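Annotators were shown the component list below and the corresponding predicted structure, then asked to write short factual statements about the assembly.
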Amino acid sequence: MKCAHGIEARQVNELFINIDPIQAGGRLTADAMKAVIAYGDGYSVCDNCRKPNRLDYISKPPIAEFHRDLAAWLNMDMVRTVPGARRGFQAVAHTYVNKGDPVLLTSLSHYTEFLAVEECGGIPREIAVDAGHRVTAEAAAMKIEEVTREFGRVPVLALIDHVDYQYGNMHDVKEIARVTRQYDIPILYNGAYTVGILPVDGKDLGVDFMVGSGHKSMAAPAPSGVLATTTERGAEVFRTTATEGDITKRKFGIKEPAMMGCTLMGATLVGLMASFPHVKERVKQFDRELENNRIVMEALLSVEGTKVLSEYPRRHTLTRIDTIASFDKVAEYHKKRGFYLSSALEERGITGVIPGATKIWKFNTYGMTRKQAMHVAEAFLAIAQENGLIS
Amino acid sequence: MKCAHGIEARQVNELFINIDPIQAGGRLTADAMKAVIAYGDGYSVCDNCRKPNRLDYISKPPIAEFHRDLAAWLNMDMVRTVPGARRGFQAVAHTYVNKGDPVLLTSLSHYTEFLAVEECGGIPREIAVDAGHRVTAEAAAMKIEEVTREFGRVPVLALIDHVDYQYGNMHDVKEIARVTRQYDIPILYNGAYTVGILPVDGKDLGVDFMVGSGHKSMAAPAPSGVLATTTERGAEVFRTTATEGDITKRKFGIKEPAMMGCTLMGATLVGLMASFPHVKERVKQFDRELENNRIVMEALLSVEGTKVLSEYPRRHTLTRIDTIASFDKVAEYHKKRGFYLSSALEERGITGVIPGATKIWKFNTYGMTRKQAMHVAEAFLAIAQENGLIS
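Structure shown to annotators:
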C-alpha cells in the first residue's frame, strides 16, 4: 500500500508487536495521532502567537501551560522543547564548552553527546564502567581527578545517561551528581530512555539539566525533545538575545540564541502535548513493564546458551542479550542463515529485531500488554523448539 | 471541537482562506497529510536503517532517492534535511564563524540569522537597503569594504535572504554572490520564502549554501528544512565525525557533527518528501500566484490612502501595506476599534491578518485559486464600502 510517490504506508505498529530497541517509547498515542492530523500544517501553532512572540508563551493551543506542567512534572524550574534530545545536548554544550575544554562523558555515552562536544571543539573524556557495565560515582570521581591532572582543570560539563543505549543499564546519576557538584561541574542528565518511561525527579537527582526525547520516549513525532533546567542554569542556557543590527538597531526581544528562537512550531509539539497526560500515567506503571520484560527474559534464558549482557534483574525494558551459544548455532546451517530468527518472529507477528542478528542483539519490551509479553515469550520458545535448541 | 486535553482541533485551513504571511507555503498537501499519519510514530523512518546507519542512506522509505532528487532540483551537489531553516544557518555559522568574526547580514535579515551568528560569538554587520528596501550588490560591496576597515579583514560568511520577511522584496542574490566571490566570502542563500515557492537554481545564483524551510514554504510539518551545498563546501559543513572515546576507542562512523547526526527521523521528513512532487510542480506556476496577488493588491490600492510598502509590481506574494490613511481611519471610531478589520474578514471566511492590525501589516496570497483571490479582493472592497472608505 502506497501513501505517496513510493512512500509505503507504514503499518509496523498496527500489524506487529514491535520490540525495536529505540522505537518502543515513541509510538504515538491515539490523542497524539489526532493532534498531529489537526496540526500537520507548517506553522500551525502560531495562529495565536502574540507579543512577546515566543513559542512557550502561546496560550492557544495551551503551549504555555504545557511548559509549566512539564517543568513541574520533571521537578525542574524551567523547560523548553527542542528538536530531539541531541539539540538539548547541543544547546548546553554550546553554552559551557569552548575549544580544548575537557568534557565528562561515559564509556556508554550516546554518539549524539560526542557530536555535541565535538562541534564545540571540546575534548570528550569517558568515565570507565565497572564489570557489570555500570557507571559509578567512584569512577566519576576518579575520572575527574585524571582529567584534572591531564588538563590542569576540571571538566567544564558532565553529560551522564541515566539509562544507556547499549545495555539499558541504570546508572547512579544521583551519586554522580553529588560528585560533580563537589567540583562545581554542571551536570546534564540524559533521560532519552527514562523521561516518559519511568518516574524521574530532577531536584532529587540534583542535576542542572534534564534532557528527554519526544520521539524516543514520550510518544511524540520526530524530531522532538525537552530540555529542563534550574532557574540559575536557565539564566545561562536560556539567555535571551543581546545582538543588534548595526544599521537598523534592531533587537530581537526575548528570543533565545541557544534555542535558535522558537523550536517546535507544529505537529511535533502538539503531538508531544497530546501524549503528555498519557505519558504521566504510564510512568507510574513501570513495574508492569519490568514484569513483562521478565516474562520474555525468562523464556529467552531458558534456552540453553543464552546470556543476558544487561544487568539482571532488569531495571529497564531495553535489554542486550548474547545468543551466540543458542540462536546463532541455528544460523550456521539454516537455509535462511541468520535471517531465520527475525523471519520466524515476523511470522508470529513480532518485529524490531535487526534482520540477520543472532549473536548479540537488543530488544525492548516497553508498552506491551501482559498477553503480548506472553506471546513474545512463547514465540521465542517455539522458535527454539522448532530449531532443536530445546526439546 | 477538542482533539485532546484542551488542544482544540485546528481547522484554520479547512474553514478559511488563510492570508497569514508565514503560513501560506506551509499548508500540507493531501499526500503529506497521509504520509504524516502513516509515519507519526517517533523513529518511524528507521525500520530499515542499515549500515552505514545514517538517515540520508535509508532506501525504504526512499529517503536516499529524495536527497538526490532534492539536490538536483536545487541544482546543488549535496543536501541534508534540518529541523527548520534556522538549523541550516546554525550549522553553517558554526562551521565558519568564530568569536569576534564579522558576518555579513542585511538590514532585512531574519532574526534567526542573527541568532545563528550570535551563538557563535560572531559580529553581525548589516548591508544597507536602498530607498526601495532592496539589497543591492553595490551596497554589499560597500559594506564589505567598511567591515574590512573596521576589522582588518573581510567577513567570514554572508547570509543573504533572496526574499525578505518584512517586505517580501526580491534581492539580487546572484549579483551579491558575484561580489562575495571576489572577496572569497562563502555565501548562504536564505530561501525560506523561495525554495518551494518559485523556481531557484543554486549554480546559476552562484551561492555556496542554499537553505529552505519545510514548514514555511515546502508544505511540510514543523520543524523541517533543507540545507544544500556544493561538493567543496559540503566537505566542510558536512564533515564527518573525527572524535573518539578515550577509553572505549569508539568512533562514530559517518555521522556529521554539524547535523548532530540524523536530523528528521519521522513525520517531518516524510511530510516533506510526500509534498515534494507537488512542490516541484507548483513553483512552475508562480506567475499565477503573482496574478492572484495583483488582483488583491489592485482592490486594496483602489481604496484611497492605501500604500504598498513592498516593491511594486510585486515579485513575491508576501506583501506589506500601509493602511494608516485608509482602513485605520475606521478604527478610530469603530466600536470594535482596530479589530473590526480582521473581524470583518473572518465573517467573509478570510483569516491570517493579525487581529487589531490596521496600520502597517502583511499578508500572503500564496496558494489561492483565482476565485479565492477575487473573493479576497471583493471582501476588502466590501469592508471599505461598509465603512465609508469608498462610495
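Statements collected:
1. Residues 5 and 320 of chain B are 37 Å apart (CA to CA).
2. Chain B touches chain A through 96 residues (CB under 8 Å).
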